[in-house]
Structure formats: structure tokens, C-alpha cells
Amino acid sequence: MAVKVDQEKCIGCGMCENLCPEGFEMKEGTAQVKNETADCVEEAISSCPAGAITKE
Ligand code: SF4
User: Fold this and answer.
1) How many domains does the chain have?
2) 5: which residues sit within 8 A by CB, 6+ positions away?
3) C-alpha 48 – ligand 1 centre gap (Å)
4) At 51, which CATH number?
5) How far, in Å, from the CA of 6 to the mean position of ligand 1?
6) CA gap 16, 22 in Å, rounded
């Protein structure tokens, strides 16, 4: 399982970092995956307004 943030889709709202600081961090205006095994990652995926976070 790999969690990814599509840098083209991410609108930089910061919601994933707010919901899941263990899993995501903001860098230069977009979100980066910090720890894809954090428990809160799923919640961030379903809450991202841009649908930019995927898990495959
Ligand atoms: S919630 Fe989605 S759009 Fe917002 S910063 Fe995170 S990845 Fe980007």
C-alpha cells in the first residue's frame, strides 16, 4: 500500500495535516506524505476536498 498526494490536484488547504499531522505535512504549498501507516491517513483521504490523496 502506497499513499500518495497528487501534487497537481492538491489545493494546499492543509486539511490533511490538520486531521492527520502524523501522516502529512505541508511543504511549499502542497501536502507531502510523512507516514503512510498512520491510523489517521484514511480519514484524511476521505476528507480531502480535492480528492488528491490516493492509496494504491
Ligand atoms: S487535504 Fe487534500 S487538497 Fe488539502 S492539503 Fe491535503 S492533499 Fe492537499
Assistant:
1) 1
2) 16, 24, 30, 31, 32, 33, 52, 53
3) 5
4) 3.30.70.20
5) 9
6) 10
Q: How do the pLDDT tens digits run along the chain, 56 residues long?
A: 799 999 999 999 999 999 999 999 999 999 999 999 999 999 999 999 999 999 99
Q: What is the pTM of this model?
A: 0.94
With a Cβ cut-off of 6 Å, ligand 1 is lined by 5, 10-16, 31, 48-50, 52-53
- Is 3:54 a contact under the CB 8 Å cutoff? yes
User: Cell 503512510 maps to which residue?
Assistant: 36
Amino acid present at 41: V
Dist. CA 13–CA 8, nearest whole Å: 13
What domain range includes position 28? Answer: 3-55
